[in-house]
Design brief:
This protein has 382 residues and is mainly alpha-helical. The longest helix has 32 residues. α5 crosses α7 and α7 runs parallel beside α16. The protein is globular. The two termini are 28 Å apart. The chain has 16 helices and nine strands. A hairpin with a 2-residue loop joins β3 and β4. The chain has a three-stranded antiparallel sheet with strand order 1-9-6.
Length: 382
């Protein structure tokens, strides 16, 4: 998986050789990169094979944002569809057809014994889904519809959120040159200017959160250990850099948070939640609450995480939830963090980043928090 991430970043950096000293639209560049990474690591295909799916997904997300607050009338909406609804159905069918086509190609390889992978349909995410689809045990078998839904979700969630998060990280590095130098010096001290990245080196990056064992167990009590392994939790927390943590706090990709149904009447402080009521927990508001983070809540200060998340949040782990919390914590959080660290490390090995004078700061609150007018960066080769 890591080799695929590195190969995808290498391809991007090769394209950048023709743009040295010039302005680059970093948001679009990282959109291509994150699409490539998902296609390679999860589906074993290049971006060229998966770009049709991503194109349709981006159009669907744009339609979803446009119609987010549209009120639909019961029964009538099932008979009379809007132009956007008909276009969304067409795109949805196109995505399903494309995924089925990729699945059929994988199945044909197995039938023709062209797939030399010892795991049959492949050891990547798609291969595991196809194996589950063909499982003889009916209790473990998934339908083609479920397989398509899983692929659709991974394509959309895995690419869009990573794209947004990486873009804000690059922006902050370009603005805060002192932190750009700190991160670059750390990367070069471990990997040098040309050395290929490896897992051990990534884990050794020292701008990391220092967490006490008691704090990790505190989070473990809140989370369902049955769903999220404690080992995964430790790896995720110990490998998260201060810079990345602060970026995720300031520009949380899934800024809207999540909505949860209250299963039974409950009291929280002076509030009483009734059975059946939906509770909205907005991450961005929690991450920008001065009562938790102090009066400098809107300032970029990675050092607030110097002594770990525990001290930064006054031992309140639910005050920092860039990937959610509990049963439905994002399963791809560790994947996203490693993708970010690899991408940033490889870029800073070769380039100094400067913010273009033409950049307009306008975070757009769509399905994810992304730059409305892109992020223009000037690349200076080292």
């Amino acid at each position: 998986m890591m080799a695929d991430m590195v190969a995808s970043v290498e391809m991007m950096l090769e394209r950048w050789k023709e743009k040295e000293g010039a302005e680059v639209e970093i948001y679009e560049e990282l959109r291509t990169l994150t699409s490539e990474v998902i296609s390679r690591t999860a589906f074993g295909s290049s971006f060229e094979e998966g770009k049709q799916i991503f194109g349709m997904l981006h159009k669907m997300m744009a339609l979803a944002e446009t119609n987010m607050y549209t009120i639909r009338l019961p029964f009538i909406s099932n008979i009379f569809k809007t132009v956007d609804e008909m276009e969304a159905e067409r795109l949805d069918q196109g995505i399903a057809d494309s995924i089925i086509d990729i699945v059929k190609k994988r199945e044909e390889k197995v039938k023709c014994q062209q797939d030399v992978d010892s795991n049959g349909y492949g050891s990547d995410y798609l291969g595991l889904l196809i194996q589950a689809h063909h499982d003889e045990d009916e209790t473990k078998k998934i339908s083609m519809e479920q397989l398509i839904d899983e692929c659709r979700t991974l394509y959309a969630a895995g690419q869009e959120t990573a794209n947004a998060a990486l873009s804000w990280m690059i922006l902050l590095l370009a603005i805060h040159q002192d932190w750009q130098e700190k991160v670059r010096n750390e990367v070069i001290s471990i990997f040098g200017h040309e050395k290929c990245l490896d897992f051990d080196g990534i884990a050794r990056l020292k701008i990391v959160s220092k967490l006490s064992p008691s704090f990790m167990f505190h989070i473990a009590r809140i989370m369902s250990i049955r769903r999220i392994s404690f080992i995964f939790l430790i790896i995720f927390l110990l490998q998260t850099g201060m810079f990345i943590l602060e970026t995720l706090r300031l520009y949380t990709p899934v800024y809207t948070g999540f909505i949860r149904d209250i299963g039974k009447e409950a009291t929280l402080g002076k509030l009483t939640g009734l059975d059946g009521v939906q509770c909205h927990i907005p991450f961005i508001m929690i991450h920008h609450d001065p009562k938790i983070w102090g009066e400098d809540v809107h300032a970029f200060k990675p050092e607030r995480f110097l002594d770990g998340i525990a001290k930064a949040t006054n031992n309140n782990p639910t005050a920092f939830m860039p990937f959610g919390m509990g049963h439905h914590m994002c399963a791809g959080s560790n994947f996203a963090i490693n993708e970010a660290k690899i991408t940033i490390a490889m870029i800073l090995q070769r380039y100094s980043l400067t913010l273009s004078p033409g950049y307009v700061h306008a975070p757009h609150p769509g399905l994810t928090l992304r730059p409305a007018y892109g992020i223009q960066i000037i690349l200076n080769a080292l």
